[in-house]
Amino acid sequence: MKLVVIAGPPSAGKTTLTRQIVKRFKDEMIIAFLKIDVVKAYEDIELKKEFGILTKKIYSGDLCPDHAGVMVLGDAVEWAEENGADLLIVESAGLCLRCSPYLNQGLGVIVLSSISGIHAPEKMGAMVSLADIAVITKIDLVSQAEREVMIQKIKEVHTKIILMETNALQGNSLHRLYKLIQDSPEIDGKNLILKGNPPLGTCTICIGRKEIGWRHHFGVVQKLDGPVAEYLYRGE
Q1: Which conformational region is residue 21 in: left (phi greater than 0), alpha (psi within -120 to 50 degrees), or beta?
Q2: Given a cut of 90, is residue 28 above it in pLDDT?
């Protein structure tokens, strides 16, 4: 199974990009989609209705959404593999700028809106610096000069990132992204860890544990299929 993790600030165009990816591969692959959000999300309902793909969503509630993502990704990979998925797309909530949702396998995609300001890439932290691919959206709404400055800012944060610009509503100029997904290797679900170090803090994720799945963590943990806002406590 291939894995694509899509991150970015709210309203950058993550779901619109996801829709284009699903539209491109729905006839070639069995696709599973996981949406991680805080309070409310409808992307899973919309994508399932439009394309008939496998979907799930999880609300982080009182947890940081990036921490909730780490907790449930192990379950999500198992769920997707058990359902025969060829491609798992994970869309993060995109709210914590200290964390990075990308893993040591699969592709990490940061979605940045061109209208968010030329300094936005510098404010995204690890969400940009650890991504494999940066997709700049809404390019029809700004001048060429502004686009070029944003590109330069992204390169200053991450010199080796793969850059592409698109109007994701129409799906323009995404052929390279599709090729990268096609050529990406399959993941080993039992050896997934975070690509970067989490920020320091008090929970097991905050203090640096990188293993995926709630079974590897202590304190307040969360399962993918648990009731909304129901948390478990493991350890002392």
Answers
A1: alpha
A2: yes
Strands 232-234 and 219-221: what pairing? antiparallel
Position 137, amino acid: T
Q: How far, CA to CA in Å, does 227 sit from each of 48, 59, 219, 232?
A: 21, 10, 18, 11
**What is the C-alpha separation between 155 and 175, in angstroms, rounded?**
21
pTM recorded for the entire structure:
0.85
Answer whether residue 180 shows pLDDT above 80.
yes
CA angle 131, 104, 5 (to 5 degrees): 50
| Structural domains of the chain sorted by starting position, each given as residue range(s) with its CATH number in brackets | 2-234 (3.40.50.300)
3-13 residue pLDDT tens? 999 999 888 89
Contact 187, 2 (CB under 8 A): yes
Cβ–Cβ under 8 Å, residues 17 and 109: yes
What 3-state class would DSSP assign to 20?
Answer: helix
Distance, in Å, from the CA atom of 226 to the CA atom of 231, rounded to the nearest integer, reads 8
Summarised one tens digit per residue, pLDDT across range 42-85 is: 999 999 999 999 999 999 887 778 888 888 999 999 999 999 99
Beta bridge partner(s), residue 133:
109, 162
